[in-house]
Amino acid sequence: MGKLTDKIEEGRVLISDGAWGTFLHQKGLKVQECPESWNIERPADVLEIAKSYVDAGADIILTNSFGGSPFKLAAYGLENQTFELNRAAAEISKKAAGDQALVLGSVGPTGKMVMMGEVTEEDLLEGMREQVRGLVAGGVDGIVLETMSDLEEARITIEAVKSVTDLDVACTFTFSRTQTGEYRTMMGTGVTEFLEMTREAGANVVGANCGNGTAGMIEVVREMRTIDVDIPILVHANAGLPQYRDGETVFPESPGEMAPQMKELVAAGANIVGGCCGTTPDHIRLIVEILRA
Prior knowledge:
The chain is an alpha/beta fold. It has a single domain (3-292), classed as TIM Barrel (Alpha-Beta Barrel), CATH 3.20.20. It contains 13 helices and twelve strands. The chain has helices at 3-9, 21-26, 38-41, 43-55, 70-73, 82-97, 121-137, 151-164, 191-201, 214-227, 255-258, 262-268, 281-292; strands at residues 14-15, 60-61, 102-107, 142-148, 168-173, 176-177, 183-184, 205-209, 233-237, 243-245, 248-250, 272-275.
């Protein structure tokens, strides 16, 4: 077992970090700027974000590498720096974590689809290997694929991870409630198909992130647990469902509204809980307080 699954086996619920992008923008990241470029150009600012979650009591923090695939970096002309930018992302989070938290290397969707002929399976596999090599070189304790919706892309990415490292790999999809009350991804993938793919591909941890506030995530986890009672589940919920106010998207749940719901999320079967959009160190601090109590 890897470091992450070892911790889960100990039986304690693990608490992860929250949003990163919001804070990068607060520190001056421009809309057209590459977030991952800050790992080399402004590492102190990235370190401050990572450290804020460690100080809040998180057991797990992620890396500033969500868009760190060569396919995403190509939009900024940075695809040839894939390895360096991901290694720097990992090194920054490891520095923040010290011996207090585990670091999971964040891998987001590429925006390219094999089924549409936008990328070949071979090129996707090799591109994702390059990102993972950088994260592993920087010292991550595991890899998390997040905000995924395409079964094929996720399967190939898990294969890429497993061909580079024997570290634990987690995979979380973004599910939204349909008009008929089911939870599906924007590609139409349901929870059952997601679990079938991830188990077959060899993911060590599964789950959901973004797309829902905690209330919706509770339902998703319950559905997962009816299918598989044993597999570790990770959830990064938004701070409520997004609302559009005064020309910007906001996530309305305060720490006091979001944190108490985490008890029900754990009761539903989640092993790792944390936040996605709109979640701050204050949210994580209160989640730690409530769950550790």
